[in-house]
Specification:
- This protein is of the alpha+beta class and 277 residues long.
- Helix content is 42%, strand content 18%.
- The chain is built from 6 helices and 9 strands.
- The strands form 3 sheets. It has a 4-stranded antiparallel beta sheet with strand order 3-4-9-8, with no helix packed on it.
- It is flat, with a radius of gyration of 27 Å.
Length: 277
């Protein structure tokens, strides 16, 4: 994943909080608050994914250990001449010979099992299709359908995370496969805590709660905006922070410009020293 580390994100959050306390102009404060919220959501998503991957890793290691113990304890049955049988545990040399011949199943590492907390990428398949319903005038919600055959049989394995400008939908271990669809750069911002999803027989239905405008709810002509953000620059949150600070510098008063200028200078010096190491 080409993005800043969680430590850098947390440092960005602290710096935004410091700038917010020093800001006196309402427009600048609003810009800072909006960006601070986005950064906090990014940090939360990172931590949630790390916890999820750690749990999956521990569960897989436990399964492999139990499988290995079951193979070790499997007894060998020898028939005797009187028709009776005795149970004899195989020797260590016999166990090794069995493993070499491949007659006993070997512990298999699942493709999606993470090797460490730093490995936050998992192999996913995409959903069969996505359908966006163009909403009516002044409708408070937007409806999206993600089609996936028989997903209703795996309701407890469906995860859906809502953010201000994106949605992340996952189905974990559905017949041995993982599915994911990230809907990014939404046409307009949504209210995450008021958005929801339902799992039907062959699809997942997303209900996105719009942010109400000054007079009414805006109509969405498309699900994702083509002009709202530069996707390449959005990969690194530091780019958007620098752009925000640049706007604040150009529109702020003398004190604001001095404060922003010093912050930008420290940031550039930090990047230069990091490259020299």
């Amino acid at each position: 994943m080409q993005m800043s580390s969680i430590k850098e994100i947390e440092e960005d959050i602290q710096e935004l909080k410091t700038l917010l306390k020093s800001s006196k102009r309402p427009r600048i404060s609003s810009m800072l608050q909006t960006h601070l919220k986005s950064m906090e959501e990014l940090a939360l998503a990172w931590n949630q994914q790390a916890v999820s991957m750690k749990a999956a890793h521990e569960q897989e290691m436990k399964r492999l250990k139990e499988q290995e113990e079951a193979q070790t304890k499997s007894p060998a049955v020898n028939q005797q001449g009187n028709g009776s049988s005795t149970v004899t545990a195989p020797s260590s040399s016999e166990q090794q010979a069995t493993l070499v011949k491949g007659s006993a199943p070997q512990p298999q590492k699942l493709p999606n099992a993470p090797t460490s907390l730093n490995s936050l990428t998992t192999a996913y398949k995409d959903f069969d299709s996505l359908m966006f319903l163009t909403d009516e005038y002044n409708s408070p919600t937007v409806t999206v359908y993600l089609e996936l055959k028989n997903v209703g049989e795996f309701k407890e394995r469906v995860q859906c995370e809502f953010f201000v400008d994106r949605v992340d939908v996952k189905v974990l271990d559905m017949n041995g496969l993982n599915y994911r669809r990230q809907i990014t750069n939404l046409y307009k911002d949504i209210v995450p805590e008021e958005s929801s999803f339902k799992v039907k027989r062959n699809r997942i239905e997303l209900t996105l709660k719009k942010v109400k405008g000054e007079f009414s709810y805006e109509t969405w002509n498309e699900l994702c905006s083509k002009k709202r953000r530069d996707r390449e620059r959005q990969k690194d949150p530091m780019n958007s922070i620098m752009e925000l600070m640049q706007d604040m510098y150009e529109e702020g008063d003398d004190n604001t410009r001095k404060m922003i200028g010093e912050a930008m200078m420290k940031s550039r010096q930090g990047n230069s020293s990091g490259m020299d190491m």
